[in-house]
Amino acid sequence: MYALAKRDLLSLLTYRFRLYTQLAGSLVSVILFYYISRLVTHSRLGSSNDYFAYVVVGLVILTALGSTVTTMPARLHQELVAGTFERLLVSPFGATAAMAGMTIFPFVMALVQGIVTLAFASIVFHMPVHWSTAALALPVALLGTLSFVPFAMLIVAGSLVVKQASVGAGFVMTGISLVGGFFFPPDLLPTWIRWVSQVQPFTPALELLRHLLLGTALTESATLSLIKIGACAGILLPLSIGA
Question: What is the pTM of this model?
Answer without folding.
Answer: 0.84
